[in-house]
Amino acid sequence: MTQAAKVYGGSLYDLAAEEKLDGQIMEQMNEIRQIFRENPEYLKLLGEPAIPLEERIKMLDEAFGGQIELYLLNFLKLLCEKKILREFAGCCEEFRRRYNTDHGIVEAVVTGAVKLKDDQMEALSAKLEKVSGKKIHLTQKTDPTVLAGLRVEMEGRQLDGTVQGRISDITKKLNEVVV
């Protein structure tokens, strides 16, 4: 994440939190980010210097006007004017980071060989919330190299309950005994 994304995303968060719109704006930012991901040509078009700024601003109004918070629309226009709309994803990350910190939410990623069922995800989330004492936002990844078990990454730590991780721990302990 660039410094510009931190500054702009953090500033939008400060405004949104002050106006008690932080949750709503975060949700809308995620939707817009998804639109930009699915339509990279649209994002490229909004950053095209050959198109006059007024037309690019009008495109934003036509696409999002009346559908998103005015603060967020004006934020998009500001990024467009400053020629840094490509930083929007980083701004979203900073906004989410600040939101999570203020609301006691921890992002966690669980990795397994197969996708977990909804009830398994709920049970794991509840267990992690109990252990950490914080609200957990759990996402999952699948990795076929994980033979069995799960690996959870949370707050910069890794909780490795995979067979591979357990074998690695045993090997490490055996090497300590031999040395």
TrEMBL record:
GO terms for molecular function: hydrolase activity; proton-transporting ATP synthase activity, rotational mechanism. Its main location: membrane. One of its GO terms (cellular component) is proton-transporting ATP synthase complex. It is found in: Cell membrane; Membrane. It is a peripheral membrane protein. Keywords: ATP synthesis, Cell membrane, CF(1), Hydrogen ion transport, Hydrolase, Ion transport, Membrane, Transport. InterPro entries: ATP_synth_OSCP/delta_N_sf, ATPase_OSCP/d_CS, ATPase_OSCP/dsu. Belongs to the ATPase delta chain family. HAMAP family: ATP_synth_delta_bact. F(1)F(0) ATP synthase produces ATP from ADP in the presence of a proton or sodium gradient. F-type ATPases consist of two structural domains, F(1) containing the extramembraneous catalytic core and F(0) containing the membrane proton channel, linked together by a central stalk and a peripheral stalk. During catalysis, ATP synthesis in the catalytic domain of F(1) is coupled via a rotary mechanism of the central stalk subunits to proton translocation. This protein is part of the stalk that links CF(0) to CF(1). It either transmits conformational changes from CF(0) to CF(1) or is implicated in proton conduction. This is ATP synthase subunit delta. The lineage of its organism: Bacteria, Bacillati, Bacillota, Clostridia, Lachnospirales. The gene is atpH.
